[in-house]
Structures are given as C-alpha cells and as structure tokens.
Amino acid sequence: MTWDWNFVLKILPRLMDGVWYTVLITLASSAIALGGGLVLAILETVSTTFGQAFVRFWLELFRGVPTLVLLYFTFYVLPEFGIVLPAVPIGIAVLGIVYAAYCSEVYRGSLITIPAELRDACVALHLSPYITWQRVLAPLMIKRAAPALLNYVLGLFRETAVLFALGVPVLMGEAHEVGYENFRFLEPYTLAGVIYLGMNLPFLYLLSKLKDKHA
Amino acid sequence: MRAVLQYWPVLVQGLCITVWVAVWVILGSVPGAVILGALRLSERRVFRLASMLFIEFIRAPSALVLLFWVFYALPLVPGMPRLSPLTAAILVLALDGAAYGAEMVRAGIQAVHVGQTDACHALGLSKLQSFTKVILPQALSQIVPNFGSLARSMVKWTAIVSFVGVQDLLYIGNNIRGQTFDAVTVFCLLATLYWILTVLCGVAFRVLEQVLPLNRALRAARMPSQAAPEADVQGGAQ
Amino acid sequence: MLNTGESSHSGPLVPRAAAASKTFEPHGSAPKSQQVRWAIEFEKVSNSFGAYPVLVDLDLQVRPGEKVTLIGPSGSGKTTVLRLAMTLAKPTSGDIKIFGESILFDMAGKPLSGSQEARIRRRCGMVFQHFNLFPHLTVLQNLIVAPTAVLKQSKEQAEESALEYLHMVGLQDKARAYPAQLSGGQQQRIAIARALVIKPEILLLDEITSALDPELAGEVLDVVRGVAHRSKVSMLIVTHEMRFAREVSDRIAVFDRGRIIEQGPPEKIFSHPDSERTRAFLQSVLNH
C-alpha cells in the first residue's frame, strides 16, 4: 500500500476535530488536576489525620490500577446507579481526579521545601491563616512545583488517547474511526502519530524554559 | 458475583498473560534504558542529541498510539514485518519503558561523584570499564528505586494490549462483563488484581534494592563495628 | 623483588634504594626509557579556565626518582599541574611528556587516540584529596580493580599483591571492610595502596591530607614518607604541610598566579628564598 496524499487531505478535517477534542479534554482535566491537587494538598496539611488517609488511599488506588480499568469502571458502573453521563465528561473527570492525586503529592513535596521560618514570619506579621495560604504559601508552592506539575499535565495529555476506548472522539479515536471506515490504516495512524508528536512541542518548550529558570 | 467467579479458569489465563507481558516489558526496557541513559551523557554531541531525540520521539505519542501504529500501519510500509499482537505489544511498551527509564539512568549516573570518574581514569580503566565496574554499580542505588515505580506503571501500561487482541486480564474481564452484565464485580476484581500485581512488583524491586553493592556497603558500615569485620569476611567469601 | 627483568635496565639511571625489602618497580617501562632524562616534563604549558589563566607558560621537569613538591597559595594552579599530568584535563597550549613521550600528540603532531593515551598514562598514578575510593567495593576489591581490568592479572595474583600493599600501609586486617567503615586517614592510606598496586613510575599526590583532621594526617604522611624513602618512584606532590614537604622533597617549586616564581632544594627555599613573594607566602603559612 502506498501513501495517498488525496486521502490525507480528505481525512485531515476529521483528525482536526480529534485535535480539538484532545485539547479541550486536556485543558478541562488539567484544570481539575491542578486545582483539585492543590485543594487536596492543603487539606492534607491542614487536617492531617483525615486528609492524609484520604489522599493516601486515592494515591495508592491510582498507583496500582490502570486508568483504563478506572474508565471502564466509571463508564459501566455509574448507569447501574441510575447516573447516565456521556463519555466525554466521564473521561475528563476520571483523568482529572487521577492526576489530581499525583499533583497533590507534587504540591506537598514543594510545600516541605518552604522553610519554616517563613511561616513564623507570617505569624509574626499577624497574617490570618487564610491570607498566609493565599498570599504566601500557595503562590510559593505553585511556583516551585511548576516543572513537575507541567510534566504531569504532559502525561495527562498523552493519556487522553485511551479515551477512544469509551468512544470519545479524541485524535486517536478519530484516526481509528477513519481507518475502519476506509480500510486504510497507514495514513490515519501515521498522521495521528505525527500530530501527537507536534502537540508535544509546546510542552517540551515550556519545560525547557522552566528548567532554565530553576537551574 | 458467583456468575463472574465461574469464569475463574479464563481469568487465571488472562492474569498469566498480563504477568507474562509485564515481565518481558520490564526486562526488555532495562538494556534500552541503560544504553539510552548512558548515551545522553556521551562526550559526543551527536550521540547526546540522537538519544535525546529518540527518547522524545518514543515518549511523545502515548504508548497506545505507538502500538496501533506498529500493529496496523507498520506492516503496510514496504519491507516491514507484520508482528504478532503479543510481540508488537511487548516491543512498544518496552521501548516506552526504556525511554522513561533512560532519564532515571541519566540522573543516577550524574549523581555519582565526579571524583569516582577521576579515580577510574587515574587507575587506567577504560571508559567502558569505568562505567560497568564503578559508575553504574553506584548509580544503581539511585536508579533502582525510581525504576521500581516506573515498573509499577509498566504493569498498568499492559492494560492497553487488549486493544490489539492480546487476551490479557482486561480483555478477559471485558468479555466476562459482556456475558454476565455484572460490571461492578468484574471491574472491582480487575482493579484488585492489578493492584496486587503492582504491589508485588514494588516488593520485588524493594528486595532488589537490598542486594545492590553500594547499599550493601552502606549497610555494613551502619552495623556495630564489632560485628562488621566478621560479617564482611563471610560476605566476601560467598 | 617484584620485577627483576627490568631492574637491570633502570639500574644505572636511578640508584636502587639500599636493601629495601620492598621496592616499587615501575611497571612495563620500555627499554628506550633509559635514555630519557625526565620522568615528566612540562613544556610551555598554559591552561585557562574561560578567560581566567590558570597556568602561564609552565616549564617543569622531574627526573626519574625525584620527589618534587609544589607549594603556593590556593588557586595558584598547583592542582591543575597534577590533573594535566594525569590527563584529567587538557592544556590550552604546550606539551607534556611522560618519559619522553607526549601525552597529547603522536609523532606526527596529531592528538593521541584513546588507547595510545591510555598506554602512556598507565605510568602515572594519583592520590586525591577526597580519596575517591569506590564506596561499593571492599578495600581488597578497590585494590584489584585496576590490576585485573587494566593489567589483566588473574584475581589470585592481584589479591596476593594487593595484600602486600595493604600490609605496607598497615591495614592488612581491613581487606574485607568497606571504605565507609574506615576513618579518613585509613581511607587515604588505602587510596595510596590502590595507586601503587599498578606500579606507577610517577606518583601524583594532590593535597592528600587537606580533607583530614590534623590527628589523622600524620599516619598518611608516614606512609608517604615510607614510600618516598624506599622506592625510586618519581613524585609530584601538592601539599600545605610544609614540614612534610621539607622532609620528603628533593626539590620545591613555589607557584604564584599560574607561574613558578622560584624553585630549589627545600633547605634553600625554606631558609633563604630569593623571592619576596615566597618569603611572604611561607610566613603566612608557617605563622598559621
């Protein structure tokens, strides 16, 4: 089978739809992951016993169980409880929650590198706990955690491909569909690979920038 | 629940396939990770650049995209082989593991004190000898724990092989769900089995850490000074 | 004697240390080396770190068997001299010769290949400020790595000679210990034994007591004194221990800002140096 440029032009719009979905899902899941992770990390530091047990449990669960199994579980089990959701929100929620657990660990890791003297200083300045977190600790924590967090967002982006298993039209899903409709696999999968490769470049650029800043 | 458990013989088969794939993926990724990681620190710019590009090239599309490409698209390229689902799956996942592991190897090597390289040079060891006898054994103490958590991830990665028709745990589980319509039991069971596998994998690496040369040396140093020489004689005699 | 075949060649050149029970014969010195005047020779060697000059047109020669100590303020380029000799660094310009053979260029003036360089640098051994023992290997394993891997000795042969050298540094009972189980002084004595098992003709000692507590430095210096008096290995030493330098050296070279400002026998340098800078430097370290 030889490479057919006409076929490429024909399927490109469909693949671009897939790119659009991939971007959308990556953004939405990252928002949940980054925000939820921060909340979990703060919860864990503020309420040690409950927060820690809660986060530990989720972390251990997500460390040991493939995302695919979690996706299938949510997809097939929720309807049994009368909750029928389309595949896209399920995908966004599962990826977001899994990565929120990972991100909370990153936040916590960066929090312990903030010297205790800084908290003492906040107390000495009579800052309320809320202000201390909002103006001092959280910004510092996020700044230090940025490279590791970005790495997780990159990982999340790469993992969006598995959502095609639920029929979500991410780039991988579109390539798969188009391939089956036309019984031509060379162009769709190769194009999908190249586009995924290209979509990594902004991440790698940002990561190298951040690394330079921290070095 | 009982309906699902009736299928235990096929479940065990699926579990065995998953373990088989995971073991080969983990073992297969080790040499690739060491070679790529060492090349990342080569004195030659060409090697550094080539290995970096290769690593990013493998990691950039997820393993899933790579697997579909290797399985469906690669055989269409003239002169390329048609791989069996199992071979394609192990090859792709091992490559992905090697790419992620390479960064751990690189970091581990960089963490070895530069004086060790100087000492090797002064003793006349060749580059390869320095690497295999001195640098890598010490770097392993940092690499192995990190590689252990990567290996746990690799066990999870194997779930995607069901997409190309390898009848692993997830594939069997999905079939059973189709026949029993008991999704809760099936997926709770799958989650538990995967979780146990990853925990066992973590334990295996914890054990491996104990026998690493540098860790053994440091443990010997922590022992009470009286007992130490005796134990060392035995250790050396083995 | 460890290596009687070669002793007759080098005999006329270097007076054999009288009746020493333990003599460190050079390993594999080619017959042509007997015509060579210098064990090591720096010819107009310059080196810079970025724009900052570390060594400026250095000329320095060491005779076979001679013990030369480099002294001078920190940052004056002494350690760089040793690292250049050990090919741990490359000079910006100039040439360095080990027994008449350049460690940088071949006869045609082209840079040496890795294997050519390895053959020549095998005649040098080095002891480092921070010991650089291999922490994952036992003392005995540390000592046999190079003999087995580089000199292709059998394990038994290498262990036998390693134990002799351990005996010489007084640590034969520590053969099976790991470096982390030893004191700093003991570690450095092991490092000296490790450098000597490959029977170097030139021994480079780089501030070998600087990382040690004063009470541990003595045992290390005693070992070096023993080696210096009993063997005909050439030594190039960098140290801040002025008394030790005076005892052990045949010649002292005073470094300042990348140049040798004065050199001569220790008595002269310490008692009536020519240079005002030397006097100032000695005063600063001796009053310390």
TrEMBL record, chain A:
Principal subcellular localisation of the protein: membrane
Subcellular location(s) per record: Cell inner membrane; Cell membrane
Keywords: Amino-acid transport, Cell membrane, Membrane, Transmembrane, Transmembrane helix, Transport
Bilayer topology annotation: Multi-pass membrane protein
Alphabetized Pfam families for the sequence: BPD_transp_1
Residue ranges of the TM segments: 20-43, 55-75, 81-102, 149-168, 188-207
PANTHER family: L-CYSTINE TRANSPORT SYSTEM PERMEASE PROTEIN TCYL, MEMBRANE COMPONENT OF AMINO ACID ABC TRANSPORTER
Family assignment from sequence similarity: Belongs to the binding-protein-dependent transport system permease family. HisMQ subfamily.
Protein name: Ectoine/hydroxyectoine ABC transporter permease subunit EhuD
Species this chain originates from: Bradyrhizobium iriomotense
Upper taxonomic lineage: Bacteria, Pseudomonadati, Pseudomonadota, Alphaproteobacteria, Hyphomicrobiales
Automatic annotation (TrEMBL), chain B:
Pfam entry (one): BPD_transp_1
InterPro entries reported in the protein's UniProt record: AA_ABC_transptr_permease_3TM, ArtM/GltK/GlnP/TcyL/YhdX-like, MetI-like, MetI-like_sf
Membrane topology annotation: Multi-pass membrane protein
Keyword line: Amino-acid transport, Cell membrane, Membrane, Transmembrane, Transmembrane helix, Transport
Subcellular location: Cell inner membrane; Cell membrane
Gene3D superfamilies attached to this UniProt entry: MetI-like
Keyword Plastid found: no
Residues annotated as domain ABC transmembrane type-1: 15-202
Transmembrane domains' residue ranges: 12-39, 46-71, 83-102, 184-208
CDD domains listed in its UniProt record: TM_PBP2 (cd06261)
Similarity annotation: Belongs to the binding-protein-dependent transport system permease family. HisMQ subfamily.
PANTHER family per the UniProt record, alphabetical: L-CYSTINE TRANSPORT SYSTEM PERMEASE PROTEIN TCYL (PTHR30614:SF0), MEMBRANE COMPONENT OF AMINO ACID ABC TRANSPORTER (PTHR30614)
Protein name according to UniProt: Amino-acid permease protein YxeN
Organism listed in the record: Bradyrhizobium iriomotense
Gene from which the chain derives: yxeN
